[in-house]
Write a structure and sequence with these properties.
Layout (H helix, E strand, L loop, with lengths): L18 E3 L3 H20 L4 H24 L6 H4 L3 H13 L10 H29 L13 H19 L1 H16 L3 H7 L1 E3 L3
Antiparallel strand pairs: 1-2
Length: 203
């Protein structure tokens, strides 16, 4: 057998797609860590208060670090790289409806808006949860500040905490739908990209 053509690509085949690192280790840790903390908090609620509380603390700590990382982190982790205004976001959603949205290596405008909404919602959920802990259980960093709160106000605060939590959780199915739709429209596995950090450079 002749080896004269060894290593020469068949002109009838496509060259392998180039994969590039998009999501750094912390972004991936934040994504799955926050998802896990939220799931644990949702499953425990009042039945396992200590575990529920620590899940809330974990979510809040992850969000705090992510906010800083959005300023000093890698290219695709920075807020300035992917957060867009309402006009650009609405225009992109129109492209999605028409079936031909532009592709972004990082977050697209709709994905960025969802990420901001989820982070803000879970941050408010965690903060109000710590406040409820101080008002109802006289524990946590806000215990002294909540000491003079009436029982009625403490109950209202708990209602607000639960409302914000459920309102934010309602966004999760929309987030998953957006991931599935973008994966289908661009013929790529976005979930895999958030696991190993790589995406195809051009599709």
């Amino acid at each position: 057998m002749s080896h004269a053509n060894a290593g020469i690509a068949d002109p009838g085949t496509n060259p392998p797609a180039e994969r590039v690192r998009v999501w750094d280790p912390f972004v991936r840790l934040f994504h799955w860590g926050l998802a896990s903390a939220v799931l644990i908090a949702f499953l425990t609620e009042d039945e396992l208060l200590e575990l529920h509380t620590w899940a809330g603390y974990t979510a809040l700590a992850l969000i705090a670090v992510r906010l800083v990382w959005g300023l000093i982190g890698t290219r695709h982790a920075r807020w300035s790289q992917f957060v867009r205004g309402p006009r650009a976001t609405l225009a992109y959603m129109g492209e999605i409806v028409r079936g031909h949205p532009a592709r972004y290596l990082g977050h697209n405008p709709a994905g960025a808006a969802m990420a901001v909404a989820l982070i803000a919602g879970f941050a408010l959920t965690s903060i109000t949860g710590v406040m409820v802990l101080g008002a109802s259980e006289f524990a946590g960093p806000f215990a002294s500040a909540m000491a003079g709160l009436s029982a009625g106000s403490a109950h209202d605060l708990k209602d607000a905490h639960e409302f914000i939590a459920w309102a934010t959780l309602a966004l999760v199915p929309l987030h998953l739908l957006g991931v599935a739709l973008a994966s289908r429209q661009h013929h790529e596995n976005l979930v895999r990209g958030m696991i190993d950090g790589y995406k195809i450079k051009e599709v």
